[in-house]
């Protein structure tokens, strides 16, 4: 990134022009006519030069980014060009998303340029503005990301963390509700959500350029316990925000189940380096065990045990299967092992489909599994009132799953730092060397499979009660791939990474249901792009970072400055079709 | 006895298809240590390419003449598969040549999903199985009560002929030696004046051509194709490649035939019947990997970084 | 320079400080260029949900369901069926996955304007959707669920018990279609040795089970019971297995995608026997996939033959005029059309003299229960369990690749 083909003053002028143009773009009309499916959001046929503060939605977002960009380009801020470049990507993303969608929905370029005597160059202007802003950063090489002091008085640091996490909570809630709930009444929720992602991504990139994100991550590493408690609190507060609807609680709980499973998979893949392509089978085993012990009418056993017992039994049985599946690792390595696990996954799926032993219900699945009961008999799928706030139904499952994830994370973190965890990492790095150093590799590998399977089994038990139906369709090969993709997208061996990966892979399809036909295609392409451009994942694990960033990550420093990878702040890629 | 013979015939025909696909797996894995998950989909796309050629390119008048239609479709399928494989190799795999080994595997999964979806979305009517023309002599050769479909016979013969040719090519030709050298050690191969990139591209191309041919013959034999044929046959083929020993041409094809026979014989005689016939394939796979990881004809497994 | 920068900064900051002026900006609602006769839609918009697989291998069926529901909704809007309201369709993809279906149901049910849901396609997905919608008193009418347990419970033969007040279906269940097919194949067609094959899914297995029981009761021998994968294209293993048992007919529980190739491969293996199936194979694609080999194959389907009913013909014509050729109405399109019309009809009755609110849901359920109209599949009405009262079934036989009706009747049990 040392292209400097523009003279600094010209670049500077371009940047300012871009920022101004972004503000202008926000106020220009965006469509020339009201589209057939309904008006494009935020009164897109109107100009807002006479009322800049009546802007809403994506135009308000663009306006904000434009103002920030303008301020940053005239005032001297640290790492100015990094910040501006991030904002430029944000502006361009908003422009591009709206340009493409309005063109597609309006049936031609007339909708975004001029037609029937009306003109609407908003999206074009935004695209140009974004381009100018990015171009404006080519005047001089990009600056180093600034470093901020991390040895402030403890209360100040705590306050900083508190504010950061509060902002995080707000961002999560905003992201979930961005674009509104899709559906017939709101046909443009997909593009609005993508616009919001462009907006948020631009601001995030700017924050990363300023070094704020790194500062926060360093602080949270310094005050681990405090951060964890605050994060947990934030998770519990999510239902009290705008995202606290029944729908999002259901989705969040589903994501939670998969996130917990993904963390389990992370033990096998991320820590021990054993690729497992049939992992979802353990989730399935846990779920089927729980379904059969839940007293559901369709289960052939007809036994009803209390939930905590069921969890233990599910975990135990899944663990046994985990050890069995893991046993070939004693002799099989690498990609061959992946195929063995794939084979086990397929065997499980075929057996479940054929209702083996009458335990899986076959294609009928096991329906009507009763919901869990709170101690006072409240079913988990009822709505409750907490601190005077009515919370939507499903929120109890959400809380349960937050607790589950917290527990799983704690197990994972402890395992990772234990003797066994170090043994796993050693095996991942070099199995022969690990064996030579006296690590019982066979035992360790089987234990990795067992631990991963136990976690998946627990998640499965919750899953069974939450979805109320357990059938083989939920445990197909594609699900294993999705889980693996979640781990890899987030960053192998990294706990927050697995949660983030699972969230992205399950939130995005929900948000972009309008493109449900293209869902899997985009999903496939996304896997390719991630591997090509960011193989270490979004939140790379510290040890793993060096390995996966590739051999030519020049100037890589060692243990003293663990957080300093030569990382480019990259705004979220907008998967515009 | 009749039943057994009949199932053997069916098993051999399935095995021919699986073997042809397995060749692509075994060669690619042998040379770049990549489980090319997308290879099954390349087989599928080859079949669709041939079907498209038949539907829109071949003139109405000659569609019934097998000695014109069949070669045209086979060439079309092979070309479509090869071009596709080369594009994938260039855009998706090549940039990851030195990446950690999970990266290309995940990429391959992504390519596989994307290819399947692309065909479903953009090939007219591909959401359901599509009829495939019988561009070869219809009917059976009757051996007593056992029927041997002519298209099936064609599949087996083509598999054996192509394998033999490939084996000769790899053993005797300059390029073949280059391939073997690159598989042994790409760095040393480079020192010896071999261009590993070109060799790898050639490997992908040969594998894809074989898969494309397999796709066309599979379609002609079963007279229907769907977007799902890729994944399933792809897994069978990988199993076959492992069974035969990764890197072994002969092994892949023999592995393919064994897989085909295991499936039909298990469906006939083992408990669970056809419901569990796939399971036995996987059981064989696991057993081989555990007790003889180098496969039937493979060398002892090299420790691969 | 410095001064300029400062001025600019002050200006920008100043602009930020001005709070929003009370400008009255409004956009003229336009667009709806669809029809000349504008209905009164002053009371707002109501949503009809659809849950069906819109991606994955059952897309063709799901799209048929969605499009047909769309057709019914559009027609209702044109005819101003529901006074004062505009109806919109909200199709949700369930990927035939129960969990995804549950999520879609939650999403639809959290919209207070959702009056009802058409779907699902698979019985397994319906099992998750039922309790969610029932909890919110939202009507669900399925065009395609055939498992009897959904309406009458696990012990549906001996102790039928209604499961959910909100759940209805317009299709028949396996326990009437299977036996009807068995009566025809064993008694009328005189096939005494039958091989039964099913695709392992709820629909196919359920149908095959019911068929098998009745065929045995009718004195036929079931020589084999086999299972194939729903994604299979190669059936040689199963065919090799049933061939030496010399069956006189094959009964297949499943859908056309596998049934067409299966029929063809059976005949190519030298077994010249007819294949019989349920409504899942009644689609022109069956003849295309199976080619000449399907000549003489049989199938049962619900209701009277389409060309005999003017309503059905009207539906088919309207559908083909509206949707592109590659999106056929498929096996359950007409069912979905009838289901949507039942919902809309009941809604029109409910809202004839009332405004929509949550308290109307009970009335809507009652009105669906008492709904009675002629649809594209004959009479549409519901019995005390929520099942269709239309037990009329038709046997079809393939002639030149098309299903032609042979006889129509009721199951006399």
UniProtKB/TrEMBL annotation, chain A:
Keywords: Cell membrane, Membrane, Transmembrane, Transmembrane helix. The chain crosses the membrane at residues 12-33, 53-75, 87-112, 118-138, 158-180, 192-213, 225-241, 247-272, 279-299, 305-324, 336-352, 395-415, 446-464, 484-506, 518-535. Residues 549-577 are annotated as: Disordered. Pfam families: BPD_transp_2. It is a multi-pass membrane protein. It comes from the Bacteria. It is found in: Cell membrane. This is Branched-chain amino acid transport system permease protein LivM. The lineage of its organism: Bacteria, Bacillati, Actinomycetota, Actinomycetes, Pseudonocardiales.
Automatic annotation (TrEMBL), chain B:
CDD domains: TM_PBP1_LivH_like. Its main location: membrane. InterPro entries: ABC_BtuC-like, ABC_transp_permease, BCAA_transport_permease. It is found in: Cell membrane. Keywords: Amino-acid transport, Cell inner membrane, Cell membrane, Membrane, Transmembrane, Transmembrane helix, Transport. It is a multi-pass membrane protein. This is High-affinity branched-chain amino acid transport system permease protein LivH. Belongs to the binding-protein-dependent transport system permease family. LivHM subfamily. The chain crosses the membrane at residues 12-35, 42-59, 65-88, 100-123, 152-170, 200-220, 235-266, 278-297.
UniProtKB/TrEMBL annotation, chain C:
Residues 1-25 form the signal peptide. It holds the Pfam family Peripla_BP_6. It comes from the Bacteria. The keyword Transport applies. Coiled coil: none annotated. Gene3D superfamilies: 3.40.50.2300. Keywords: Amino-acid transport, Receptor, Signal, Transport. The keyword Zinc-finger does not apply. Residues 45-401 form the Leucine-binding protein domain. InterPro entries: Leu-bd, Leu_Ile_Val-bd, Peripla_BP_I. Belongs to the leucine-binding protein family. This is Extracellular ligand-binding receptor. It comes from Kibdelosporangium persicum. The lineage of its organism: Bacteria, Bacillati, Actinomycetota, Actinomycetes, Pseudonocardiales.
